[in-house]
Amino acid sequence: MRRAGLIAMTAGLILAAAIAGSSEPQHRTEDNRRIVTAAFDRWAKGGAGFFDEVIAPNVVWRIEGSSSSAGVFRGRADFMEKAVRPFTSRLSSNVRPIDVRIFADGDHVIAHWEGRAVARDGGEYRNRYAWIFRMQDGKAVEVWAFLDLAPYDDVLRRIPAPKEQTMSTHPYVGMWVTDDGNIRHELLPNGRYDEARGRRQSAYQGRYEITGTHIEYWDDTGFTADGDFVDENTLHHGGMIFRRR
């Protein structure tokens, strides 16, 4: 019933958006459809930049529903900190879209999609979503998110949040930089990392754990990665070589 209700709700919203935006130029519709479709395609193939690619820094993101997880998040940073990070920190593999349908009209794009992930206790997470984007200059400035909050809340209740590590005395804490200086990868003393890429400050953030010379990463957007310290001044990670600075 929940699935049927979500589909019916989505269909109604699609119709409303189509009526409201019927006078919008066709090229705007196609541009917005292309942007969101391409971002979902990259996400499904393992990409980790969906929210940076599609969501404006000043977005207003609304999770609709009656549970404590529903609410309004003002700004991408607020949404990532309060909605995305608490959920993805409880996953061992991030949510990936496995079935996506995109509808667009003018400034509005609707993504009706199914996602799967694996929780840290080995249980499968699976849900269907309807996200309604209001686009402006190629980015979503408003989003209305519909999903079944029962399985989402179950992950939050069932799995404790990881404890923050204290790494203040660990020898690998500090700044690591590629030889060309383009990627600057800082391992913070609180067990989190902050990575800048080119002019993009804080392009990726998340938590990390070090066992011996091996490092594992859990990004706030949901993807995981790892690397190895080959000596005290050299880190191999993601096919790249980082030097201590």
Query: What structural category do the secondary elements indicate?
Result: alpha+beta
Measured distance between first and last alpha carbons: 56 Å
Extract low-pLDDT stretches.
none
Helical fraction equals: 25-40%
Mean pLDDT over the residues: 88
The H/E string reads HHHEEHEEEEHEEEEEEEE
Q: List the strand order in the largest sheet.
A: 7-8-9-10-11-12-13-14
Evaluate the radius of gyration. Answer: 20 Å
Shape: globular
Beta percentage is: over 45%
Number of strands: 14
Count of discrete alpha- or pi-helical segments spanning 4 or more residues:
5
Q: Summarize the biggest pleated sheet.
A: 8 strands, antiparallel, barrel
Describe what this molecule looks like in 3D.
This protein has 245 residues and is α+β, with helices and mostly antiparallel strands. It has helices spanning 2-20, 26-44, 50-54, 76-88, 149-158, and strands at 55-63, 71-74, 91-105, 108-119, 124-136, 139-147, 174-178, 183-187, 192-197, 200-211, 214-219, 224-231, 234-237, 240-244. The strands form two sheets. Strands 7-8-9-10-11-12-13-14 form an eight-stranded antiparallel β-barrel. Strands 2-1-6-5-4-3 form a six-stranded mixed β-sheet, with helices on both faces. Strand 12 and strand 13 (234-237) form a beta hairpin. The mean pLDDT is 88.
